[in-house]
Design goal:
It is built from 5 helices and 9 strands; from the N terminus they run βααβββαβαβαβββ.
Length: about 150
């Protein structure tokens, strides 16, 4: 039976999965404790998400990761639907940033998100190593948003 649980303690125990969504631990440390964490279980842990409250009634998905053995089975999409329902009425926008040029952009667009803006050089400015997705070095962060 699928369920989503809010995680309030010992969030670092999910670090191996969190590192799939954000591959630098020092960056995860910047938002992990202040963010709300959710874990989707379906006969075991499948997907994790961390969301922070930003100014102007905006909630930002800082991390969304699905166990590689269960990717492309709808768990990420289900987590996004859960988050949109959870924050509906609490905020006006749900946002997410990902690498410009990565396949994640198409995934979020299929889930109802629209491109908002780009932060040039984000990954080269904030990470201590090159970020490579789908064989491409990612330098810019692209933000997508969905109205709540």
């Amino acid at each position: 039976m699928m369920q989503v649980l809010k995680i309030t303690a010992n969030k670092k125990r999910f670090l191996p999965l969190l590192l799939l969504g954000d591959e630098q631990e020092s960056m995860i440390d910047r938002y992990l404790e202040q963010g709300e964490m959710f874990a989707l279980y379906d006969n075991g842990l499948k997907t994790i998400a961390v969301v922070t409250k930003e100014p102007k009634r905006v909630y930002e998905i800082k991390n969304l990761a699905t166990d590689p053995a269960f990717q492309r089975k709808g768990y990420g999409r289900r987590m996004l639907a859960y988050l949109a329902a959870y924050y509906h009425g609490r905020g006006r926008l749900l946002t997410v940033g990902t690498g410009k040029g990565s396949s994640n952009v198409a995934f979020y667009e299929k889930c109802g998100f629209a491109v908002s803006h780009t932060v040039p050089g984000f990954f080269t400015d904030h990470y201590d190593h090159p970020i490579v997705e789908d064989g491409v070095v990612i330098t810019d962060m692209i933000y997508l948003q969905k109205e709540l």
